[in-house]
Amino acid sequence: MKLIRELYRPKVAMLPSGALYHGPKEAAMAARFLEPEIILPIHFGTVPQLTGTPQELAALLPAGVQVVEWIPGEEYSA
Question: Model pTM?
Answer without folding.
Answer: 0.90
